[in-house]
């Protein structure tokens, strides 16, 4: 058995044990799971491939975002008519050009989650069935320099849970508007 298969089995086993202990249904046996590692493990290409195949919707939660290929794939999906929505960390609310500015300029609804000390999620939910998550930030450094992991899970039930969590964060997030240099940044919520 290859290391990749052993890794997937270990993840499934740990996830099942945790799910049973927490009373949460485990990942469905029909789920398809792909795992990637960086640096240079194909994480960015895997994300872009899934975004290129998106047909209906993409929900994004991102702490930071500097990957040009992933940003372009999100913009291309939006141009194809896919409903793309992005929630960023408050660190993206800056006078300088940020990922939030990029998405807003592309016409993608963009929100800032400023309720938490750090909105550290790295999640995408595609077409209500594919979940992309892991330690992998959607950044160039995550692909080229950092030790990261990325899971792509095709499971509608799991995707529904992530979409609900995305919606909960949207409810306390605020629409992104790039502050003018003379404007003060909004007060942080406590």
Keywords:
disordered C terminus, 8-stranded mixed β-sheet, globular, 6 helices, alpha+beta, 190 residues, Endonuclease, Chain A
How would you describe the overall organization of this protein?
The protein has 190 residues and is of the alpha+beta class. It has one domain (31-175): Endonuclease, Chain A, CATH 3.30.870.10. Helices cover 37% and strands 23% of the residues. The protein has an eight-stranded mixed beta sheet, sandwiched between helices. Helix 3 (68-79) links the parallel strand 2 (57-62) and strand 3 (83-89). The longest helix has 20 residues, at 3-22. 33% of the residues are buried.
Number of strands: 8
Could you tell me the CATH topology label.
Endonuclease, Chain A
Low-confidence runs of at least 5 consecutive residues: 182-190
Order of helices and strands: HEHEHEHEEEHEHE
Strand content: 15-25%
> What is the CATH class?
Alpha Beta
Strand order of the largest sheet: 1-7-6-5-2-3-4-8
Rg value: 17 Å
Q: How many domains, as an integer?
A: 1
Task: State the end-to-end distance.
Answer: 50 Å
């Amino acid at each position: 058995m290859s290391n990749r298969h052993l890794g997937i089995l270990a993840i499934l086993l740990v996830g099942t044990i945790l799910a049973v202990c927490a009373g949460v249904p485990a990942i469905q046996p029909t789920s398809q799971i792909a795992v990637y590692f960086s640096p240079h493990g194909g994480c960015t290409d895997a994300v872009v491939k899934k975004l290129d195949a998106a047909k209906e919707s993409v929900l994004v939660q991102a702490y930071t975002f500097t990957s040009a290929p992933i940003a372009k794939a999100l913009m291309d999906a939006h141009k194809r008519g896919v409903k793309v929505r992005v929630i960023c960390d408050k660190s993206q609310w800056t006078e300088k050009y940020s990922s939030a500015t990029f998405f807003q300029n592309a016409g993608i609804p963009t929100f800032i989650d400023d309720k938490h000390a750090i909105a550290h999620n790295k999640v995408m939910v595609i077409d209500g069935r594919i979940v992309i998550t892991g330690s992998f930030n959607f950044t160039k450094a995550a692909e080229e320099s950092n030790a990261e992991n990325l899971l792509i899970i095709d499971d509608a039930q799991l995707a529904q849970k992530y979409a609900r969590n995305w919606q909960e964060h949207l409810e306390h997030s605020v629409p992104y508007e790039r502050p003018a240099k003379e404007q003060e940044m909004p007060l942080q919520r406590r």
